[in-house]
Automatic annotation (TrEMBL):
Organism this protein belongs to: Pyrodictium occultum
Pfam families per the UniProt record, alphabetical: PBP (PF01161)
CDD domains tied to this protein: PEBP_bact_arch (cd00865)
InterPro entries: PEBP, PEBP-like_sf, YbhB_YbcL/LppC-like
Protein name: Phosphatidylethanolamine-binding protein
Length: 155
């Protein structure tokens, strides 16, 4: 079975509805996944914009997501620790939790990559507020599966 990531809010390669952006309510979209490897002990999700003017921009970091979950609900609170869902890191907005697409006006559509890592670790041993680079360093050698969902957005 293939490890896949999807959202009821938008399909892969499609435009992210404004509700999930800085032009709307700026809430995280619901995510669903299936087909994770049997050796999965937890998940880590990093959402990034590879098209940002100054280089890759991180929009969301959440890790130590329990292996028993097969998705995240819409509107994950911006709390450092979300009971039953995981621990949140700091985005490049400088804040804990999800920060939606907010590209400069008039540019071509930016891509927003939701990258879900299935890990063979139950915990990364990081407290709340880790940056994407710290998470990526910690998961090296522990990724047992990887699923991606990409949306686009322009203003």
């Amino acid at each position: 079975m293939q490890f896949t990531l999807s959202s009821p809010a938008f399909s892969d390669g499609e435009r992210i509805p404004s509700r999930y952006t800085c032009d709307g309510e700026n809430v995280s979209p619901a995510l669903e996944w299936s087909g994770a490897p049997s050796t999965t002990a937890s998940y880590a999700l990093i959402v990034y914009d590879p098209d940002a003017p100054r280089g890759t921009f991180i929009h969301w970091v959440i890790y130590d997501i329990p292996r028993g979950l097969n998705g995240l609900p819409e509107g994950v609170p911006r709390d450092p620790v979300v009971e039953g869902l995981g621990i949140q890191g700091v985005s490049d907005f400088g804040e804990i939790g999800y920060g939606g697409p907010c590209p400069p006006r008039g540019n071509r559509p930016h891509r927003y990559v939701f990258a879900l890592h299935a890990l063979d670790l139950e915990s990364l041993g990081l407290g709340p507020g880790a940056r994407a680079g710290e998470v990526l360093e910690r998961i090296k050698g522990h990724v047992v599966g990887y699923a991606v969902l990409t949306g686009t957005y322009s203003r």
